[in-house]
Amino acid sequence: MRKPLFVAMFVISFTSVTRPMRFLPNFRRRTYSIVNFLNTSERIWTVQTSRPGNTTCQYDHVRRINPRFVLFNRTLMQGRTRYSARLRGEFFEDHKNEEYVTALDFRPMFRAKLIFAGENNVCGVMKLGSMTGAPTTYYELQVRNSSLEIILYRRCWHHFCNVARHSRGVYNPHCQHLIRLGI
Description:
Number of strands: 9
Shape: globular
Largest sheet: 8 strands, antiparallel, barrel
Strand content: 35-45%
CATH topology: Lipocalin
CATH architecture: Beta Barrel
CATH class: Mainly Beta
Number of helices: 4
Strand order of the largest sheet: 1-2-3-4-5-6-7-8
Order of helices and strands: HHEEEEEEEEHEH
Structural class: alpha+beta
Number of domains: 1
CATH superfamily: Calycin beta-barrel core domain
C-alpha cells in the first residue's frame, strides 16, 4: 500500500513542477517597416531577383518620403537601353511592411512587401506582386549603395535564398560605372 502511494505522490510532485514540453519553438513573425527601409538618400539596388527577364542595373532613388507615401525614380537597363520611371508608393497604416506602387498618373504597377530587413536597414528582401497583366509573385534582394561591397547583407542573402527558388543577378560593379557615365 505504501509503495503505490509513494509513486503517486512522486508523479504528482514531479508534474506540478515541470512545464509542458514544446516540440516546436514559438516563432513570432517580425514586421519590418518599409518606410524606415526606404528612408534614405542612397540608391537602393536590386542585387538579385527571382523574376525572369534581362533587366540589369536596377535601382530606386527616393525623392520624397513621408508616413503616407514615397516618390521615387526607378532606373534600370534592358540590354543597352536605360529606362527610368517616376513612381509613387502608398503606405498602409495597418500593414507597416507594405506599399502599393503606381505610376504618377495612378496606374497600378505592383505591390511590395518587405519580408526581411538587415540590421540598420542596409538590405532587405521584398516580395512583389505585379498588378499589370498576369498576376505574378517574385522576390528581390535590395541593398543600399554603401553596403554593396561589404558583407553586411549576408543575412539578407540567406533569407532571399530561402524564399526564392530560382534567381538571377541584376547588379554587378559595372553598374556603378554606367551610372557615373549617365547611361
